[in-house]
DNA sequence: AATCCGGGGTA
DNA sequence: TACCCAGGATT
């Protein structure tokens, strides 16, 4: 191991000055920190912030969430994606209320028994909310460690994962896991970024050196990180390092070799499929027919316009008639195309083709869905729709707050 | 070990 | 466009 104590000092000193001001860092409430960690799974900080604020207003504590109807929780999650997170979070809140008296357990092993909490989230809650010395390993930490320790193996392989977790654990400064973990993640998010990392501002690049200026009052015994910066004081505290790259004092092996942009190793991903999906805006007596997806699986529990994937050899119109019949047992007439909405999921892409439709015959039955409803256009905004469906709502002008927005 | 699960930001 | 993001659950 490189100079562990130096790395810890540098990182913690950098964090004290440069940490991000985030809403979940203004609280010590384990529930709030828990909510933030779930929202931040595969989700960028800036995206999660407004959801976090609103969610905590609506469900301020475990009991409120445990007792809330699933519909309301999903509506709060609408647009954030990975909707099983919302289901798991609510279910876990019910377990915490029933089995832990409404308080989150502190140990990672107990936290991991809750749905939606894996190794990362357990470590994050345990260290950040309860100040326990537990490591975390997320995308940011993986990147920082692969660079600092010049790990050229596939970071997703089980072998490398094991090695990275061990590193994350060994590096922890006793009693400071909360700040240290968050410092690693902040460094990865703001300095040690995937491409074009800001190595010139990295606290691990090289030791700050003392200047030889006569005005510098920094005693040689003082650690450079602890020296205040300023004219007539210890002006060298943050002096630009000199000397060749990778000279003694540099803590990043990738930077020393100029390999920081090549790590962590990227593994080629498989080509992702594309689907054309026909959806019907089915009107009858001024109302529109929507259905709710089954509670599990893709977009589970969310509402949508009836429709489905086009098969080879059929037209979009034929597809729509077939899908509505299979899903709801309703016969419709396809009137006119409305728009084209392209949307990318993590593992496939779709083009949605919404059509204006007229109801012909048949009372809807929940054949391949959880339930259905005829809804006045103005009421559509009350239901939780996936993001791609929201854009269809916008193009039929059903949701006032979305009128005029880009589609 | 591989696959599934959304949506948005960014260059 | 392709990659990435404070990952977890399932198979």
Beta-strand segment tally: 8
Instruction: Give helix % range.
Output: 25-40%
**Beta-strand content:** 5-15%
- CATH architecture designation of the largest domain: Orthogonal Bundle
Estimated radius of gyration: 27 Å
The end-to-end span amounts to 52 Å
CATH superfamily of the largest domain: Hypothetical protein, domain 2
Structural class: alpha+beta
- Rough shape? elongated
Helix run count: 14
Chain-averaged pLDDT: 85
What does this entry look like structurally?
With 407 residues, this protein is α+β, with helices and mostly antiparallel strands. Helices cover 37% and strands 13% of the residues. It is built from 14 helices and eight strands. It has helices at residues 4-18, 30-39, 45-58, 62-67, 70-77, 84-99, 108-111, 119-130, 139-148, 158-171, 177-190, 253-256, 316-328, 387-395; strands spanning 274-284, 287-292, 303-304, 307-309, 331-337, 341-344, 349-361, 371-375. Strands 1, 2, 3, 4, 5, 6, 7 and 8 form an eight-stranded mixed beta sheet that branches. The protein is elongated. The model is unreliable at 208-212, 214-249 and 399-407 (pLDDT under 50). It binds a DNA duplex (11 and 11 nucleotides) through residues 36-48, 79-85, 88, 115-121, 124, 136, 138-141, 157-158, 181-182, 185, 188-189, 193-196, 266, 269, 297-300, 343-347, 386-388.
SSE topology sketch:
Elements: H1 4-18, H2 30-39, H3 45-58, H4 62-67, H5 70-77, H6 84-99, H7 108-111, H8 119-130, H9 139-148, H10 158-171, H11 177-190, H12 253-256, E1 274-284, E2 287-292, E3 303-304, E4 307-309, H13 316-328, E5 331-337, E6 341-344, E7 349-361, E8 371-375, H14 387-395
Parallel strand pairs: 1-7
Antiparallel strand pairs: 1-2, 1-4, 2-3, 2-8, 5-7, 6-7
Helix pairs in contact: 1-11, 2-3, 2-8, 8-11, 9-11
The structure holds a DNA duplex (11 and 11 nucleotides).
């Amino acid at each position: 191991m490189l100079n562990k104590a130096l790395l810890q000092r540098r990182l913690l000193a950098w964090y004290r000055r440069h940490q991000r001001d985030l809403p979940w860092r203004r609280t010590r409430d384990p529930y709030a920190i828990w909510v933030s960690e779930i929202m931040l799974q595969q989700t960028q900080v800036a995206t999660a912030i407004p959801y976090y604020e609103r969610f905590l207003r609506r469900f301020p504590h475990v009991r409120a969430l445990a007792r809330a109807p699933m519909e309301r929780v999903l509506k709060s999650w609408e647009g954030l994606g990975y909707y099983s997170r919302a289901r798991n979070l609510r279910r876990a809140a019910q377990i915490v209320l029933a089995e832990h008296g409404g308080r989150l357990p502190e140990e990672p092993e107990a936290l991991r028994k809750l749905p939606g909490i894996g190794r990362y989230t357990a470590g994050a809650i345990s260290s950040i909310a309860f100040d326990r010395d537990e490591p975390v390993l997320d995308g940011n930490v993986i990147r920082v460690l692969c660079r600092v320790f010049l790990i050229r193996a596939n970071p997703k392989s089980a072998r490398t994962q094991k090695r990275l977790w061990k590193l994350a654990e060994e590096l922890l400064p006793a009693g400071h896991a909360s700040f240290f973990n968050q410092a690693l993640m902040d460094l990865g998010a703001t300095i040690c970024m995937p491409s074009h990392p800001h190595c010139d501002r990295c606290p691990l690049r090289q030791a700050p050196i003392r200047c030889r200026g006569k005005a510098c009052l920094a005693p040689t015994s003082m650690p450079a990180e602890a020296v205040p910066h300023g004219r007539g004081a210890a002006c060298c505290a943050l002096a630009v390092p000199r000397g060749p790259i990778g000279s003694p004092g540099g803590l990043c092996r990738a930077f020393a070799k100029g390999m920081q942009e090549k790590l962590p190793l990227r593994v080629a991903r498989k080509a992702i499929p594309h689907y054309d999906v026909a959806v019907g805006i089915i009107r009858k007596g001024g109302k529109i027919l929507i259905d709710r997806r089954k509670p599990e699986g893709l977009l589970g529990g969310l509402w949508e316009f009836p429709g489905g994937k086009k098969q080879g050899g059929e037209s979009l119109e034929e597809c729509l008639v077939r899908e509505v019949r299979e899903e709801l047992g309703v016969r419709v007439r396809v009137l006119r195309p409305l728009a084209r909405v392209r949307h990318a999921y993590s593992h496939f892409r779709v083009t949605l083709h919404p059509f204006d439709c007229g109801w012909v015959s048949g009372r809807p039955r929940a054949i391949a869905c959880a339930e259905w409803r005829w809804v006045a256009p103005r009421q559509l905004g009350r239901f939780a729709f996936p993001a791609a469906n929201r854009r269809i709502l916008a193009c039929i002008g059903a949701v006032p707050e979305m009128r005029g927005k880009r589609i």
